[in-house]
Amino acid sequence: MIKNFVEELKWRGMLAQIMPGTEELLQKEMVTAYLGTDPTADSLHIGHLCGVMMLRHLQRCGHKPIILVGGATGMIGDPSGKSQERNLLDSETLYHNQEAIKKQVAKFLDFEAKDANAAEMVNNYDWMKDFTFLDFAREVGKHITVNYMMAKDSVQQRLNGTARDGLSFTEFTYQLLQGYDFLHLYKTKGVKLQLGGNDQWGNMTTGTELIRRTLGNEAEAYALTCPLITKADGKKFGKTESGNVWLDRNRTTPYMFYQFWLNVADDEAEKYIKIFTSLDKPTVDALIEEHRQDPGRRTLQRRLAEEVTVMVHSQEDLDMAKEASNILFGKATKENLLKLDEQTLLDVFSGVDKYTIDRSQLGQPAVDLFNLDGMKIFPSKSEMRKLVKGGGVSLNKEKLTAFDQVVGADDLIDGKYLLVQKGKKNYSLLIVK
User: Fold this and answer.
1) pLDDT of residue 77
2) Of 84, 188, 230, 240, which residue is the catalytic one?
3) Per-residue pLDDT tens over the stretch 221-271
4) Catalytic residue among 42, 78, 181, 199
5) Is 236 a catalytic residue?
């Protein structure tokens, strides 16, 4: 059963530009559509998620999604929205990155479906690696004029913009390579639609033009883009002070991933819950209404963070992320603390004072160990004694019952950390070398 894909994108705020005739085609038959992604890293980041979600909605509406990994184009670089050329990668790195990306995308798309609309992944390096320059010039170059290519915004911006080195021939031909991908997939897999971000519109329309000029005007080839997602301040979406928010847990822990979504502003949460989840319209509308009644409860942010964390990671990772959040602000126990892996522990306490001590200093009474030279955990030893007496000091989330309690290697978390808590929210992390 084919559902209206364009309507789905519209209410979600995921439709930027669409070629005339696209919606009619999508209503008429099961359409095979593709979206290209850049394999320059072995993980996608959340800036890629809008495109991946487009493919997810496409498949759920009864159409067939293909994700194209740009192994060949990744070796060249795309001028769209960039001020510099990309680094060129070798084929071994590209293959490794492709496999890692497929694993991530498999959480969004069904590659195993028995239906005709099972997802597929392709790599344009497979059909470009043996394509000679002479063949390319004859089969592709002769169909598209330089005037047509020069008129593209992405080319004009690089020619007239701030890039010191102008536009290389390599980058200039990028739109022809991307256009040829569309032509190749049209002929070999019946792909009639290309999806992408709005900055790709010029490259995508070159593809539809190449198909028509090569195969005749009756060839049905279309393009559809989603808007580029930005934050409320207009800055690039998915970037934090520490860099990109990655889908790979080794680059961004599930805890930090969860925190990113939990901390978005109210108007962003209203926009993102439509784009980055599969929740239906009545559910989203009800959540937005509930949030507006009492913004302080952060209903939208909580649901958004839960949905996206489960989709990218797992329910188990979500539970861990919530538990980790409670360690700072809730009534967590030592048991909760011990469940955290090292990177999550460091992420949770990234903003607290840290002190490095030598392993030989263990075995001392707490009052001496936590008041070593250079430490500012307590104003003085006598102040610490008073706090301990009043039950105001914890070690690793357990109340310290005596100020002269000996702290040894058995107390270490992950074999090298001691968490000292003063009062409700004042933490220090001791790192034992």
Assistant:
1) 58
2) 240
3) 999 999 988 777 777 777 676 778 999 999 999 999 999 999 999 999 999
4) 199
5) yes
Concatenated DSSP letters of 80-96: TT-SSPPPP--HHHHHH
User: Are the C-beta atoms of residues 288 and 270 closer than 8 Å to each other?
Assistant: yes
Given a cut of 60, is residue 296 above it in pLDDT?
yes
pLDDT in the model for residue 388:
95
The encoded tokens of residue 301 equal 């942010």
- Choosing from 45, 158, 271, 303, which is the catalytic residue? 45
User: In angstroms, rounded to a whole number, what is the distance separating the alpha carbons of residues 283 and 410?
Assistant: 49
Residue 4: partners with Cβ closer than 8 Å, 6 or more residues away = 23, 26, 27, 61
Nearest to 121 by CA among 130, 111, 131: 111
Active-site residue (options: 239, 334, 385, 422): 239
Catalytic residue among 40, 104, 343, 405: 40
* pLDDT above 80: residue 141: yes
Q: Determine whether 86 is an active site residue.
A: yes
Of the candidates 3, 46, 38, 50, which has an alpha carbon nearest to the alpha carbon of residue 195?
Answer: 50
Contact at 8 Å (CB) between 177 and 210? no
What's residue 429's pLDDT? Answer: 95
CB 171 within 8 A of CB 158: yes
Tell me how far apart the alpha carbons of residues 394 and 391 are, in angstroms, rounded to a whole number.
Answer: 8
What does the pLDDT read at residue 85?
A: 47
* 411 counts as catalytic: no
Annotated active-site residue 59? The verdict is no
Burial of 26 (0-12, 13-18, 19+ CB in 10 A): buried
**Annotation says 126 is catalytic:** no
Nearest to 262 by CA among 286, 283, 245: 245
What are the beta bridge partners of residue 223? 194
Write down the catalytic residue from 86, 251, 354, 397. Answer: 86
* Mean pLDDT of the 361-381 span: 93
- In this prediction, residue 424 carries a pLDDT of 83
> Which residue type, as a one-letter code, is found at position 298?
R
Catalytic residue among 12, 48, 57, 64: 48
- What residues are paired with 413 via a beta bridge? 417
> What is the overall mean pLDDT for the chain?
90
| pLDDT in the model for residue 161 | 66
What percentage of the chain exceeds 90 in pLDDT? 71
45 is catalytic: yes
